[in-house]
Structures are given as C-alpha cells and as structure tokens.
Amino acid sequence: MTRLSTVNPDATVLDPQRFIKRERDGSALDIDQINTFLESDPHARDLTHQLVDQLAHDPVIKTDTSTYDLTKTEQREVTVKKIARMALYMEQDVKTVRKHFRDTDLLKSMQDLNDNTTPPLTNKDLSIFDKRLSLVANMDPQLSTRIGVHLGLFGNCIKGNGTDEQIKYWLQTRGALLIKGIYGCFAMTELGHGSNVAQLQTTATYDQESDTFVINTPDLAATKWWIGGAAHSATHTACYARLKVGGKDYGVKTFVVPLRDPSTLQLMPGVTIGDIGAKMGRDGIDNGWIQFRNVVIPREFMLSRFTKVQRNLGGQPTVQIDPQMDQISGYSALLSGRVNMVMDSFRFGSKFATIATRYAVGRQQFSEKPGEPEKQLIDYPLHQYRVLPQIVIPYIISPAAFSLLNYYYSTLDELYAASSKNDKRALLVVGQKLKNLFIDSASLKATNTWLVAQLIDELRQTCGGHGYSGYNAFGKGYNDWVVQCTWEGDNNILSLTSAKSILKKFVDSATKGKYNKELDGRSFRYLDPQFIRKVFTTSSENKLDSLYDYTNIWAVALLKLLRHIAKQVEKTKDLDGASKLLVLVSKFHALYVMLNTYYEKLNSPTDSYVTCPKTKEELWKVYKLFSLYFIDKHAGEFQQFKILSPDQISQVVQPRLLQLLPEIRKECIALTDAFKWPDGMLNAPIGYYDGDIYHNYFNEVLKNNPVEKDGAGIPPYHKLLADMLTRGDEFERLGGANNAEILTKLAK
Amino acid sequence: MTRLSTVNPDATVLDPQRFIKRERDGSALDIDQINTFLESDPHARDLTHQLVDQLAHDPVIKTDTSTYDLTKTEQREVTVKKIARMALYMEQDVKTVRKHFRDTDLLKSMQDLNDNTTPPLTNKDLSIFDKRLSLVANMDPQLSTRIGVHLGLFGNCIKGNGTDEQIKYWLQTRGALLIKGIYGCFAMTELGHGSNVAQLQTTATYDQESDTFVINTPDLAATKWWIGGAAHSATHTACYARLKVGGKDYGVKTFVVPLRDPSTLQLMPGVTIGDIGAKMGRDGIDNGWIQFRNVVIPREFMLSRFTKVQRNLGGQPTVQIDPQMDQISGYSALLSGRVNMVMDSFRFGSKFATIATRYAVGRQQFSEKPGEPEKQLIDYPLHQYRVLPQIVIPYIISPAAFSLLNYYYSTLDELYAASSKNDKRALLVVGQKLKNLFIDSASLKATNTWLVAQLIDELRQTCGGHGYSGYNAFGKGYNDWVVQCTWEGDNNILSLTSAKSILKKFVDSATKGKYNKELDGRSFRYLDPQFIRKVFTTSSENKLDSLYDYTNIWAVALLKLLRHIAKQVEKTKDLDGASKLLVLVSKFHALYVMLNTYYEKLNSPTDSYVTCPKTKEELWKVYKLFSLYFIDKHAGEFQQFKILSPDQISQVVQPRLLQLLPEIRKECIALTDAFKWPDGMLNAPIGYYDGDIYHNYFNEVLKNNPVEKDGAGIPPYHKLLADMLTRGDEFERLGGANNAEILTKLAK
Known about the structure:
Two copies of one chain form a homodimer.
Chain A: H1 16-26, H2 31-38, H3 42-57, H4 72-98, H5 106-111, H6 127-139, H7 141-161, H8 164-173, E1 184-187, E2 203-207, E3 212-216, E4 224-227, E5 236-245, E6 248-258, E7 271-275, E8 288-292, E9 295-298, E10 307-310, E11 318-321, H9 323-362, H10 381-421, H11 424-462, H12 464-468, H13 474-481, H14 491-512, H15 517-520, H16 529-537, H17 549-572, H18 579-603, H19 613-633, H20 635-640, H21 646-665, H22 668-673, H23 679-682, H24 693-704, H25 707-711, H26 718-725, H27 730-733, H28 740-747
Parallel strand pairs in A: 1-5, 2-5
Antiparallel strand pairs in A: 2-3, 3-9, 4-8, 5-6, 7-8, 10-11
Helix pairs in contact in A: 1-9, 3-6, 4-7, 6-7, 6-9, 7-9, 9-10, 9-11, 10-11, 10-18, 10-19, 10-21, 11-13, 11-14, 11-18, 14-18, 17-18, 18-19, 19-21
C-alpha cells in the first residue's frame, strides 16, 4: 500500500495478489524437492540458502532498487565497500571449512612464509567462498567480477603457471587469496588483440646483467585494454607478455608486475594507467588500460612452473620450456570463468523467469467479452509460448552446470597433483580430460550465455513498458549480462573451436573407430562408433516415444549435421566455409549434454531427490518442453538433414509443444517459486513474492523519486523551459530588422 | 594520433586505415547514386544532407562521445537546451517552406486568433521540420522523443479529435506547433492498462451546473504512467479519460488538461506528478506519472470533433457521438509514431551497419600460418555471415519506409479534407485506406524494430569487447532502441492484430473472391483471388530464377501459411491458439512488402536513379541476399509448408546465400559509405570514416577519462581499498579474544 494510492478495496479489476495466491493454493508440486533437485543435493541446497539469506540481508552487500539510480562513480565506490565486506566473509568461510575459529589465528599462519605446519589453502578451503561469489554474481554482477578478476583470473593465472613457492608467496603470504595485502588484475587483452592471445605484443625482455625483466608496451595497439580492476584498484597484475631472451622471442608468458603501492595506491614508475570509462553495463568495474615503459621486475616474478629462465653470467642465459604443460596451463586460466558462467546462466536466467512469470500471472489485459474481467496475460497462448519455454531453460541448465563445475574441480585437483609429482602418465590423462572440459565448457558457456541474453530480452518484452523501467531489473540485467557473450572467449570463437574439436572426434570415430569410452562417455556418447553405425544404417523414422528419445534425437541430429559438414569439407577443403554450421554443432552439443545430464539426474534413484510422483511428472514435462521448443526452433535443420519429416514437425513436434504449454502453465508459479529467490535477490518490484505488483512498483518508484522534491513544483531546469515557451515573436527578438518598414528604409 | 601512443610508423601489423582505403580505391560502385536511391529521390536526398550537416555541427545539438558519460540529470537538462534550439529551427523551417522571411512576421500572424488571411499550418509546412526531427532521432533518440511526444502525440491527438477551432487554438494560437506557449504530453497509458485503451480508468465527469469536466484518478492502477514529458516539462496534456455524463459511461475520450503554469512550471491544483525515474534507456526523457484529484476544466476543453456534450439546463445534458469517425480517429493518433519508427529502423540500422563494417574491415585477428599477417575479420566466412546480411537490412527497409510515409501523409490529407467537408463517401474510402495503413504500419513497425534490435546486438558482438565500450554507440544505441519494440503498440500485439486482419482478408478473398484491386494492390497483391488460385492449383516447384521470384516466394509463403492457419482455426475454432503462426504472418507480410517495394523502385526507369550498371547489379545482390537470408532463417516453415523442399534448401538457398557473401563483401565499405553518415552522427570512434580505429578510439576514451586526474595517482576511494588491503590479522582486529591464552582464562 502507499499513501499516494486512492485504492478502492472493493475493486475487482486489478488484484494481482489474488491470482498468485490462487496458483500457490492450487499447486500439486513439492517445491522443496524441486529446489533440492535444482540445487544439486541437500547439502549444496542448504549452503545456497544460508549464503543467500546472509548476503541478501548484509547491510553492505544487499541491493535494493536505489542501485538502479547510481552513477558510475557511485557504483565504483559502493563496489569497493562491498569487496571489503566480502573479504571479511572470505576469512570466515575459510575458517568454517577448516572448523578453526579459536586458539590460533589460522589465516595469520597461512600467511606466514615460515610456517610449515599449516596445510596450504586448497580449492576445498575456498569452496564456500566460491559459492558465495557465484551467488553474489546473481545480485550484483559487477561485484563478483571485480573479485573474480582478482581471485579467478589473477589467482588462477598464478596457480596455473607459478611454482609451488610462487603460488604460496603471492597467494598466501602476500594475502591475495584472502583479498588482503595485494589486489590483482589480469593483463591479457590488448587494444589490438583479444582472442588471439599468441599475438599479444607487450614485451618482457630479460636483462642478464641486472637479472631482471623489462616490461614494455611497444605500440598503441599493445596497450593492455579492458583490464578489470586496473583503473583504480589493482596493486599487481598477471601480465601476459612476449618473453625475449638474448634477442629471441619465446612467445607469450606470464609475469607478476607490481602496479601500485598497496598502502597509497600510487602508481609505480613507468606504469601509465587510464580509465576505460563508460560501458554498456557493469559500470562498477574499474576497467582500465595499462602501458608499460621500461618497468623493471626481478627475474623471479616470471611465473615459471613450465618456463624457466636461468642466468648464465659470462654466457647466454638459458630458457627451458615444457611445451606440453605450457599449453595445458593455457587452457586452465580461462576455464574457471567459463565454467562459472554456465552456473551464472542457470541462476541469472531463473531470476528473470521468476519476475516475468509472476507478472504474467498477476497482470490482466483485455477481456473476451465486454464487461467480463480482463484475462491474465499467462492465459493467452502466445504469452505462454513466450514465457514458459524461458522458465524451463534454467531448469535444464542446472544439472549440467553443477556437473561441469564438479568435473572442473576434480580435474583441476588431478592436474595439480600430477603436475606437482611430475607424473607424466597422469598428466597425459589429465590433458585429455582438460581438452574435453574445454569443449564442454566452451560450448555450454557460449550456448547458455546466448540463451540467457535472449531470455532476458524476450521476458522484458513480455512485461511491456514496465519491463523497460529501470527498477524492474531487466535493463541493468541485460546490460550486465551480455558481456558474457563476448568476454573470456567470444561466443562465436568458442563455438567454432569446440565444434572443430567435435568434428575431429567425429571423423576419428566414424572412420577409425577411435573412441575413448571412459573419457568420452561423459559428454560424447553420441560419438561411440556403434551408435554412429546404428544411426547411419537404420532407415526407420526417428521417434519421440520414450523419455530418452527427447535427448537421443539431439544425438542423431548432431551426427547428421557432423556428417554433412564432414562431407562438405572433404569436397571443398574449406573448414572455415562451414563455420555457420559449426556454430550449430556447438549449440546442439550443449543442448544434448544438458538434456542428457538432466535426464540422468531425474532418472537416478539416488541423485534426483524427487520422490513425489506429481512433481517428478512435472519435471519430465519441463524436460520435454525444452527439447520440443528447440527442435521447433531448429525445424529448418531437422527437416533439411532429415532428422524429422515436415509431417513430423506438423503433426508431432508442434502439436505436442502447444499441448504442453497450458499444462506447464498450471504450475508456472510453483515452478518459479521453486527457484527460491528472495525479493532482495530479484530486486524487481513487479516480481516480488507477494504479487502486489502495482503497489510494490509504485512504492519503489516513489522511494527513488520523491514526489515533492522532484516532481511537483519547479524542476531544476524550469527556467530553460519557461524561457523557451515564453520567448517573444521572432521579429521583436531580432530587433525588428525584418519588418517591411525597416527593410524599405534599408533599400533606400 | 595521440600523445600517449608510442607508435611505430613502420608497423605492418595493425594499420586499419590502409585496409579501408584499399576498399574505397577498389570499389566500382557509384555511391552517390546509391545514396539517392536510399534517400528516395534527389530532392529528398539534398534535404537530408543539408539537415544532417546543420544538426551534426550545431553547437547545441551536436553529440560527441561525452554524451555517453552523462548522468540522468545531466541528460535531462541538456535535452531541454536542445529542445529550445530545435524550436528555433522549427520557426526557420516553417518560414522556409512558405518562403516567407520578411515584411511581416509569419509566425506571429499564425498565432493571431483573429488573423483570417494567413492560411493555417499544414503538414506541408511542417515537412522540413518533420524530416529534421526524424534525422535527429538518429543522433539523439531521446531528444526526438521528447519533441515527438509534444508534436506527434499531443499535437496529433488534437488534430485527430479536435474541431477546427480547437486545432487552431491549441496548436497555433497557443503556439504548440511552434514549440512555444505550451508544451504538451500524452496521458494515455495507465499503470494498469497499456494496450487495452478501452479499459482506461481515469474519469472525466460532466458537471452541468458549472459546465465543466472533473478529472479524477479513481485508483492507483489508473495513475497515468510512463507519460513522456510529464515529470518536468509538460504544461498541458491530452488526457484519455472515460466520459461520464449523467451517470452514464460513454467510453474513453480525449481532453486537454492544463498541468502547469507555463511561466513557472508550477503544478495546477489537484494535479500530482512524479518522476518515473530510471529507465533502460532514453534517460533524457522525463517520463512521469500523473494523478488527478478533482481537476476542473471547462467543457470546451474536451476534444469534440466526433463527440459532443451539450449543456441542457433544467434537463439532461446531451451527448452526440459519431461512432465511425470516433473509431477512425482512434487509429490515427498512434499511426504517425509507427510510420516514423519504420523510417527510424532504416536510419538507425544503417548507422550500426556502418560502424561494424568499418571495424570488420580494419580489425585483424589470427593468421592462417605463423608469421603471416593476421586476417581481417571480414575475410572470415562466419564474420561475413554475421555482418553482411545486417548491412542489407536497412537497404531493403528504406524504399518501404519512404513509401509508407508518403502514403501516410497523403491519406491523412484525404482524411482531413473529407472530414472537414463531412464527405461520407470519401470518408468511407479513407477509412479503408486507414485500415490497410494500420496493417502495413503495424506489421512493418513490429518487424523492423525487432530486426534492428537484433541487428544492433549482433553487430555489437561482432565488435567483441570494443562493442561493449560505452563510447562505441552500441550499448546506448541498443538501450535507446529496444523501447520501440514495446511502445506505441507492443510488437506482439501489433503483429497479432495486423495478422488477424490479413487472415480475414485472405479468407474473404479465397472463399468469396472479395478483393479491392485499387486499395489492396498496394501491399496485398498476394491476396488477389487469381493469384491465390494459381498458387494452390499449380503443382510445380517454386523457383528462384527471375529477380521477382525472390519477392514472389514470400507471397507464396504467406498464402501457404495463411491457408494452414485458416484450416487449423476452422477445426479448433481457436484463433488465439494460432498466435505463434499469426506473428509469423505479420513478419512475412513485412518482408514481402519490403522486397516488393524495393524491387519496384530499383526496376523503375524513373524512380531508381541508379544508372550505373555495376551499381544496379550490386543492388540486386543486396536484394537477393536479404531474401535468401530470411528464407534460410525460416527454412523450418519453408519446408514444413512445402514452399521449398529440403533439397532446395540444401542445394539452392544455402549455397547461393554463401556464394553471395564474399561478393557483397567486396563492396561492403562502399555499401556502408553510401549511407553517408558523418562521424558526428555515428558517434563511435571504431566506426569513423578514416578507419583509424585504434587512435580514434583511444583518443575518445582519453578525452572522457583524463589520464592524469583519474587514472594515475590516487583514485577517489583509495582509502577504502588501502584500508582493506592493509587490515591487520583477525585476532588482533578482534582484540585477541579468540587466542588460546585468553580462551583458557575465560574457561576458568
């Protein structure tokens, strides 16, 4: 309610709360079970709820609609306050994992270079904080990016390329992993090079006499660009630069370069930094550019697990490179970001699905007949088609996102173990796992960040004008989100590289029977030579009978698409010419992996946690809708590659799709309530839990734009307006010199 | 060049200017002829160039990259300064049309209520200014909206619903059309109702004794919402309210309601106004909300061309409504906006096409072999597929946009003439024309605002990270643009209503032979009964042989789609159930109309203005690419409805599409240069004419973010960061109470 609303409590026309309540009352679903399913398992679910509850109520970190009115400068300052707050949670979270809160100061011991009794920080120690960071990304993406660049990019670059001693020194002793002591940024991208890391132009030239590297920016285009945290905050950077020793160029390696004094934030000599300025979104991140002019660092600041430069006074310095591991380490730095973006896709998508569904249920517009109450938006078939498939997208992403994250952590643990022991055999296996992980993460990152960008846009439009309001989350949400489509691997580049690897695997399997059941069984079962043979020798129609058929059809589609491409490339010898189709391979792979993972989880007696039969049935409907929606979207390819016939599209796919919509519609509130986002996380009054759309929205607008000060009376620039409106006639304004009388005089 | 760039002039790696120059040198096209084609004719083209030149250099109106850093408050104030400047151009433009600059003050005479010798202001008088406003929409959308609401919505509402005397009084005497005296807004939408205008809840109750209307907001949901100009600027509003006379509700009518004193901008009694606050884009527009509490206006302030209330003291007041004209007037108020949005789509789209093409030609990334120069982005097949179809979209929109605009003006002139003379026969014809105009404008507005939203997004992604920079126009461009998809007729609603009308026309023609060659020949030639019969009785394959086939196939597609829907609805009796397909009908109609109009113009010996054979050939390639691109996009429907076979898709459509891309690529710089946008209009340094991408971009970033003040040294919130980084160990911070020693003591 609001002081400014003259509400008639008897009004029957607009009472959105009533509709939302009715849906909840009528639901047959167990949303706790669904939530457990979506959050992976009971333990992970509980942790999510604890963290969300804490963050959404933390006095510094919580967000409200006033966020949408902050200027760039304000956003940046507020974000730093939040980082400092998150740093305190970090300490808490590490101690929670170790259950060590008393007697000795755990963190102090970790920072102590001479302490040999406290085990070093592991991924497990950071597991709670990583989850916290992933959740805060959903409330305030720029906050998580600012921290993520420091921990995820700067930190992982050191972890992936540094020696054990370097890792301990920079990340523990100096405090980086505790967001303390130093603050890192990740100086990879340059003005002239993004995707092509191998062509970066910044140089690190070894000077044997002083036993140092000299870092230089040789050209404007070599200016480090877009560097998150560089403009104001970073004290150190993980700098990608060409290693030059004795006149020879050894390619791009990584170096820790101090940028600023941590106590005053003053720049180091030779370092020039500027602010990148305004962005489409995430203005709270201080992206900057960096130029180096003869910046000198000790040799030991080069990260040298796989690349070592040795001083050799009196002779030539020596350079040792482990090429295999150097390449593997190249994969790993950006993997973390991609894996997390798949999780972000699930969470961010679910937020907007919740907002738009509540609005669609609460909002009425047009009645069937004059005098009848207006229909709820969600009861229009077109609206169902626009909203409901978007709800199911985060559902299908979730199991794949958790599975990918777990696989990433376990593979990374294997990598660190094998690489510490220098176990070549183990490294070989890990290397192959990393390659598969690269394919999956690239394809899932690209596909899902695109899907969620479309989801936000489509759902914003379903909220009409109110979706365009700054206070209903869509605008900022979209602007913050879409950078995920081009950063840390541009989606098109990622799609192409992952698809090219899949194509190679396909050819290897189809022509040489090469297939590693153990490794490829996780995401590439469609490449099993037996399956390939079956698909290409069976002439029977593809069906959508069993539940698994809804996954299997994508496996068939992938094979037919891959064969088409392979044949075409064989003829044209032009792989790039098939790019448009390769992007599709990456997308189909992601859809297949997600459906498959969802299918297996829901089917699993131990992992689904869904015992209520009605609930399980509903979750199968969700699964079917997702598959049908994308088959219909790709009906062109399904018909062209003869996966389904035109009649199957007309008589099976589309009718089933249209039949499912009104069924899913019945539980759409329960299905979105099951995401369990508190209002503070949604931060969009038209989507708050109570469904009191109009009062909530009006109140938030009013809170941020007080009526007396700003609206009524005299606005700040009223004189400009009044002067315009009351300007005199033109001839008078110009002193009358155009009047016939004067002109006659002038003519004389 | 820039002081901060250490450029090596011999560098061979990155020299984007060279590539762009090479393209220009190698072009065989006559871009002046193309520009004339795109700008409709030589006269219109010259006017465009004059106005663009004037606006892009006007000291108040010109925009530069600093625009992207303005806060909401600054944007609003700057916009008012620009409005005041535009008001002076308005005076100039009216006098230019009348060639009246001397002897007597033309505008003063127009404002004089008693002057009977000066002819009233016509659409022709406003033609130059309308074009100016349309062009400025391309530089600064919020400026044109703020003026457009006043002239286009407030003004057209009065023109469409007022008597001749009311029109003259409000628009001339009071000065509104000269942006003087009063400033109008358009209070239609309410918090609870947008698309469903008939259900608006604001009331205007007639009080016979005082001979006035009392305007009231009965409920929170009846609050006028989103009203552009209401928050700060409007002195009057065209208010949509339910006419209540003697207890009877006559439905929604229009009233002029004063809101503020024009000399002080102070609110009138009973009027409460607030600011809507932050939006996704167009923050320079002061959208507001309005509540009325017993606001009294004289009876004569009701716009009463078609609805008249007569006082009848001692008896019941009488209400006279002309239902037919009342409905027609309903169409016309929003038509202007829609028609203009089609033109905006052409211009706005062409701007981003230019930026992205120059970047794609100048930017290099990855080389084929190590050591070779890196390839230009535009030479990758995938990049061609992403960029080039987007270039041709504005090409194909242009002829349809001009044709629609001209038809709109001529039909409106007919309407005013017929309605002034009360010529019932003429009104009947105009009414039918307006209905067709409604279908075309709705379908073209919806389709093209969607296409351009996708175009901006897709092209932003082709510029990678640099597309996400605030200074390269995409972010603000997208945010400003996408409101066009939901306002002044939500795209989905417009698509549905236009498609339902098309379906009705189809059924009338197919079953009853009803078809008006004269009226429907303009956009609905595919509904000619002879053509329908031909399509449904011929069994031969559809071909893409002749040039016209590329248009004709869409006519065929429309008929097959319409027949499918008609059959389905006949069976299900559920028109809404076919909504998903109806949206497609609207889109296909728009594509058909655009291709047809382009085809006719380019084919015309008098209207194409393209005499150079190579140029004409290129423009036919543009036409083919557009058609093929969208056939491929809709390959699902083309196969499902048996318009083309899977083999035709594989062997004709896709190969031709992929062959055309490298051909169009050869002239992509010329094709975008031909739009002739000056840098000041593009306002995106990666797309400036000279192609010096990196220097231009770096310079603009630096100009807006001075390196010394902001980047180097100590940022504003450095203390927050330093305090966090240098915080002590936790046990010390907490006073050591967790130490084993203390805890032992506490345990005693």
